Amino acid sequence: MKIFLDTANIASIKTFADMGVLDGVTTNPTLVAKENQDFHELVSAILKIVPGPVNLEVVSQDTEGMLREGRDLALLGPNVVVKCPMTEPGLVAVRKLGKEGLKTNVTLVFSPNQALLAAKAGATYVSPFIGRLDDAGHEGMEVVEDTLQIYRNYEIETQVLVASIRHPVHVVQAAKLGAHVATMPPDVLDKMVRHPLTDTGLKRFLDDWAKAGLKLPERRTLVAKARPYG
Ligand code: E4P
After folding, report:
1. pTM listed for this prediction
2. Integer CA distances (angstroms), 25 to 13, 49, 184, 201, in order
């Protein structure tokens, strides 16, 4: 499963890109607004760090506006994915942008039927919002499960990008279901890195090492003793 970071925060993106765990980035108008920065500068910085898909959302509500914005956003980099909302004008825009060879993501998807229609319109990705469904008293992950089954039944190539992830268990569930991508906020990815037993285990190793007064050999000693192979 691919891991995308759901943020427009440069520092967070750099942190996880440096670890080599990041396959892409998703943004939305709320996340971009949070950074309080010039949009072009912000996105250019993100595109410099991330070679994988960078999802940028249109803000127009009519098809013409979405097409104009989508084409402009795509000019920012070959890895830009244009996010359009799951609305009638959004689906028309997705169909047209796809025909022009642009990658698209249908966002704000809350049912398998919406996901089916997004795929028929030719979306590259479809984004079911799991956490928001959970918040509303539904089992969000069921939409992922149903969508994946429908896509498999008909060999649909649209990728399921699990969005609105709230905790690491969502990530495990998405991966077990075989979702193509999970996008998550930095705090969730951070929690995936950490485990209390890793911390206590590491502390014990280092304490024992220090107590024994051991030292790793110096490099020049190792080089002097090294024998060529063969
Ligand atoms: C996905 O592309 C969205 O940006 C995101 O996952 C929304 O998540 P939220 O429900 O936590 O705002």
Report:
1. 0.94
2. 8, 10, 9, 32
- Closest by Cα among 152, 158, 83 to 118: 158
For 121, other C-beta atoms within 10 Å of its C-beta total 22
pLDDT for 226: 83
Q: What is the Cα 87 distance to its own chain's centre?
A: 22
pLDDT in tens, 59-89: 999 999 999 999 999 999 999 999 999 999 9
Contact residues of ligand 1, CB 6 A cut-off: 6, 26, 28, 107, 127, 129, 131-132, 163-164, 183
Cβ neighbors of 9 (< 8 A, separation 6 or more) are 34, 35, 186
- Catalytically active residues are 83
Distance (angstroms) between ligand 1 centre and the Cα of 185 equals: 8
Could you tell me the pLDDT band of residue 224, with boundaries at 50, 70 and 90?
confident
Residue nearest to atom 5 of ligand 1 (CA): 164
